[in-house]
Amino acid sequence: MKYNLPDQSTRIAVAWKSILLTDPHTTISTIRIPNGVIVLAVLGKGSSTGKGSDLDNQSYRSLVYVSRSPERSLCDKLGQRGWEVAPLRSGRAARAYLAAHHPTVGVFDFASGFSSRELASFQSCFATGGIGWVGILAVPQLTNELQRSVIRRYFSRFVTVPYELDSLVDTIGHEHGMMVLSTEPDPLTVDNEMVGTCRTMKELFRAITKVANSDAPVLISGESGTGKELTAVAIHKRSVRRNGPLVAINCGALPYHLVQSELFGYERGAFTGAFQRKIGRIEAAHGGTLFLDEISDLPFESQSIVLRFLQDRKIQRLGSTESIDVDVRIISATNVALEKAVAEQTFREDLYHRLCVLRIAEPPLRERGEDIEVLAYHILEKYRADAAHRIRGFSGEAIKAMYAHSWPGNVRELVNRIRRAIVMSDRRVLGPAELELDYLLSEGDNTLTQVREAAERNAIAAALRRHRGRSLHAARELDISRATLYRLMANHDGRAHRDGIAASTRCPDVPAACDAEQEAWEDRYAKVGNTRRKD
Ligand SMILES: Nc1ncnc2c1ncn2[C@@H]1O[C@H](COP(=O)(O)OP(=O)(O)OP(=O)(O)O)[C@@H](O)[C@H]1O
């Protein structure tokens, strides 16, 4: 039987339970279907020229093998079967490897004796999408509740010690086959620009794929620095217009008197100084995508000009009477709520409806959980060469501080902090001081729970700081009710509040919270805090 990859193969993987790729180099594989019949299948694009199939052409022959004492014989055996094995011991090394190499299979040796704390440091690796985990366990570990729950949640298969080398390698082959066939090729990860493994980012990637399949206008909303421009590029790259131009216009930087000439262009002699014809930005995007960045900043008087183009899809260069049809797909981005601008009559409602047919919301960095760490290593890889010496990674304290910080500037802030640290640091391991996050760490915040609590406390403190102690505004920003905010502040025993206020007095550009509302708030908070303490 011959199957073409990837479409049909995906269906095979879904329909049949087990696929054994005995050797990642070969295109001949054994497929075991549910009724027990074994079928030999040739997987590939019908090619037997020896040049290799799609399976060979991709980088999924690498395998991460985590063990405190990696088995030499297992590494050798895997090497003979064409695997590139990366034996690793720590969570940090594994995370960096996963971010850089995207292996399809991971082998985790529970039997080599990782402590519970060490196990927790691997959690983000287990949760990484696109990798199937195979466990090696000692029989008594099957009764250990923590290990059982990790296996149940994240592992597809496991073997117990003592195991037969061949059988383990076959199990890894099974896992590899299932992962390859059930994973759709993802241009986002192929070009390795947009990184994300958490649930919200996976939802974003799915939304990008769907939106890219349509030609309707899309509005991308999200806080500054969350990756709206990156998303616009990803949509364009995945769309049928990918071979056409992508032209970006920063609407905030377009003064009214230049809107017509910038957007529509002009003919020679159209006005004094127009010495030659100039093609406008909209026409330059013909056949491709027009990205209207910071659309909310488009001056009100200019909005009708853009609206007219969106209605007619025609332009007229200044100084010309000829109407030119322009075929572009519109993507716009905003970091403020356009609905609010419409309600306040600073943004035209008819333009809003033209732009906002499809919608994508960019999650802020503070809601991306362990992606902070994945992103940090991605950024380090990208800018590593700027360092005067080789930088190995981040210290444990630096990672803790990153989780504790609330990232008001989102991914851009993370990029800037890491780039600064890479250039300025004399050390091989970047610590919280290099990231200018050392003020966040307090003694003894070591366990995951403590780190999470610290992150929550700091997010609340930062929100209060930004809104000068106004609980209603801070709760709104944190997307929780005011009652929940009070409860959380009470849980943190007032520390988030104190930190928020202390920092707002420390920071020169944020005035201290000392207005009447602040005092009223403090009274209310004191009551909530007292009630809880009585409990
Ligand atoms: N998911 C991501 N993976 C890797 N890098 C990212 C990601 N999201 C954002 N970045 C990086 O963060 C920086 C800011 O991204 P971008 O310019 O797309 O944000 P933005 O939301 O358009 O910002 P603004 O609203 O200020 O225009 C860029 O350096 C970008 O490469």
From TrEMBL:
Keywords: ATP-binding, DNA-binding, Nucleotide-binding, Transcription, Transcription regulation
UniProt KW ATP-binding keyword: yes
Sigma-54 factor interaction domain residues: 194-423
Molecular function per GO: ATP binding; sequence-specific DNA binding
BP term (GO), one: regulation of DNA-templated transcription
Keyword hit for Electron transport: no
Stored CDD domains: AAA
Signal peptide: none
Pfam family, one: VpsR
PANTHER family: TRANSCRIPTIONAL REGULATOR-RELATED, TRANSCRIPTIONAL REGULATORY PROTEIN
Protein name per its UniProtKB record: Sigma-54 dependent transcriptional regulator
